[in-house]
């Protein structure tokens, strides 16, 4: 979206005249973000990826996620998109976008996160899991009929295009199949126990000022609460090299326990194995972008290529830590 399109958007929505040229914000892996200052205030415009918005279910998914964000704001400090004439999604020409109030907060990097932050976030996640979304009639689109991904298809495509990640994918292809099968076998039995959650509550999606503010609700929907708990606790306890800090991890769990009214019991091995699915889905999407299968421009293709290697290494680290994390959970 060009500055002229943002100006048209501001005029259309009555946000005032732009006083400072819009500036691109870093951090968005799928969409483009811009800081916009007008005579009426400061805003963030999230320009939605055209390739994603071309999918049949994309529009409804965004409408649903903003419904969830608006309701979640009753229970947790959430930032839904602004509504204009009752709609959260705005259109300028062929481009769709969301508009948010500007928040004077910053996301924390792993070196800045301490056990107190983890305990706060555990409590917030518990409050979200206990929120009442029943009257919104959100459809549960989580499929119990998951199929194995054909990693060999992407390997062959990578070899044909001399992709830089080809050797790494080849070296790990057998393990990817094993992790994929284990994840599917573990995810199906827990699919009947679901709550509405954020779905991607890692540190980049929380801005800290006076209180933490939860942003970017695009992935919100039904999740198994135990799997969501463990995945999010890991997000908040990883250091820069991907190692998981036990004290931070257990502080997150403790914050969650203090808010919920139920004891936390689960087949932790099954829960941890199901955690491969989200990581494998992201790996596949990154491969598609890198190979120009789901991609609109060179910048996005480059981002996909960069994500492949990092995601593969993150999955390997996770596999190596599962047994140890299971031991921590049995302690509590």
From TrEMBL:
Stored InterPro entries: Aminoglycoside_PTrfase, Kinase-like_dom_sf
Aminoglycoside phosphotransferase domain sequence ranges: 23-253
SUPFAM superfamilies registered for this protein in UniProt: Protein kinase-like (PK-like)
Protein's UniProt name: Phosphotransferase
């Amino acid at each position: 979206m060009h500055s002229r399109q943002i100006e048209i958007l501001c005029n259309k929505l009555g946000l005032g005249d732009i006083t400072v040229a819009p500036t691109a914000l870093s951090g968005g892996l799928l969409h483009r973000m811009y800081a916009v200052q007008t005579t009426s205030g400061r805003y963030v415009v999230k320009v939605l990826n055209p390739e994603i918005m071309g999918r049949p279910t994309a529009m409804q998914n965004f409408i649903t996620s903003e419904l969830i964000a608006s309701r979640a704001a009753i229970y947790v400090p959430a930032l839904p998109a602004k509504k204009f004439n009752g709609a959260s999604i705005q259109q300028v020409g062929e481009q769709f976008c969301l508009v948010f109030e500007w928040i004077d907060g910053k996301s924390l990097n792993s070196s800045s996160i301490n056990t107190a932050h983890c305990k706060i976030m555990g409590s917030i996640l518990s409050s979200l899991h206990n929120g009442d979304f029943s009257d919104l009639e959100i459809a549960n689109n989580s499929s119990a009929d998951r199929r194995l991904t054909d990693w060999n298809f992407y390997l062959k495509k990578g070899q044909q295009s001399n992709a830089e990640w080809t050797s790494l994918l080849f070296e790990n292809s057998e393990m990817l199949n094993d992790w994929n099968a284990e994840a599917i076998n573990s995810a199906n039995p827990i699919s009947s126990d679901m709550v509405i959650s954020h779905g991607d509550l890692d540190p980049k999606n929380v801005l800290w000022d006076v209180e933490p503010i939860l942003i970017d609700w695009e992935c919100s929907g039904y999740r198994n609460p135990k799997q969501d708990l463990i995945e999010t606790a890991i997000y908040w306890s990883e250091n820069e090299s991907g190692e998981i800090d036990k004290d931070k991890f257990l502080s997150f769990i403790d914050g969650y326990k203090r808010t919920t009214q139920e004891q936390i019991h689960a087949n932790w091995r099954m829960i941890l194995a199901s955690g491969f699915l989200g990581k494998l889905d992201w790996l596949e999407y990154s491969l598609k972008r890198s190979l120009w299968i789901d991609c609109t421009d060179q910048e996005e293709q480059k981002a996909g290529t960069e994500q492949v290697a990092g995601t593969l290494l993150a999955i390997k680290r996770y596999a190596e830590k599962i047994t140890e994390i299971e031991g921590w959970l049995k302690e509590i």
